[in-house]
Design brief:
Largest sheet: 4 strands, mixed
Strand content: 25-35%
Helix content: 10-25%
Distance between the termini: 28 Å
Structural class: alpha+beta
CATH architecture of the largest domain: Roll
Oligomer: single chain
CATH topology of the largest domain: 2,3-Dihydroxybiphenyl 1,2-Dioxygenase, domain 1
CATH superfamily of the largest domain: 2,3-Dihydroxybiphenyl 1,2-Dioxygenase, domain 1
Number of domains: 3
Number of helices: 4
Order of helices and strands: EHEEEEHEEEEEHH
Length: 193
């Protein structure tokens, strides 16, 4: 077992700023399948056993999500991804799947949920790792995010169509490069690595 400076770590800690701790408690209770271990005014703590995690929610006013890209839990198989997805759906959470997607230089199966403040959580399995570098195009769509590689020429017209329905700022950045026959740059907040 690897250690942190000779010390065995008990669990990772993530502290999230949230705009409404009550709504976030409801979401994270459904997502994690447990109730918080501690609740105070503007604060909640979840002690998650599997994976070992100390998750705290801190209610503070803010206007944007900030620099956080997304959060995730890696599991051992696609069956595990699907089991977590079904649990989330049964708990009333809206999920979005990406199966066989090329993300973070790996082929992955994953499913996503969003907390009340827009933080994206994924549960994923790595099917093939350490792929060669390629251009990945990620554009927001009505149903989440479309991600294609530059070699997926048959999807370029689909991407152009999806770009047309994307938010204006994303459309301008993505449309220019898609029109040139290359793929677009990753768009912040798209959920792609």
């Amino acid at each position: 077992m690897k250690t942190l400076n000779g010390i065995s770590a008990l669990k990772a800690h993530i502290a999230l700023n949230v705009t409404n701790v009550a709504k976030s408690i409801e979401f994270y209770s459904a997502m994690l399948g447990i109730e918080p271990s501690k609740v105070r005014r503007g604060y909640a703590k979840f002690d998650v056993a599997n994976p070992p995690l100390n998750l705290t929610l801190n209610e503070v006013p803010f206007g944007e999500r900030g620099a956080l890209s997304h959060l995730g839990i890696q599991v051992g198989s696609t069956a595990d991804v699907l089991a977590v997805r079904e649990g989330w759906r049964e708990a009333g959470l809206k999920t979005h799947d990406e199966m066989g997607t090329n993300c973070c230089y790996a082929i992955q199966d994953k499913t996503w949920v969003h907390d009340p403040d827009g933080n994206e959580w994924e549960v994923f399995v790595v099917l093939e790792d350490n792929l060669a570098e390629s251009t990945i195009c990620c554009v927001p769509t009505e149903n989440g995010v479309a991600c294609v590689t530059s070699s997926a020429a048959e999807t370029r017209s689909d991407v152009k169509e999806k770009v047309a329905t994307a938010p204006a700022a994303a459309t301008m950045a993505a449309a220019a490069v898609v029109a040139e026959g290359a793929c677009c740059i990753p768009i912040p907040g798209s959920g792609c690595c």
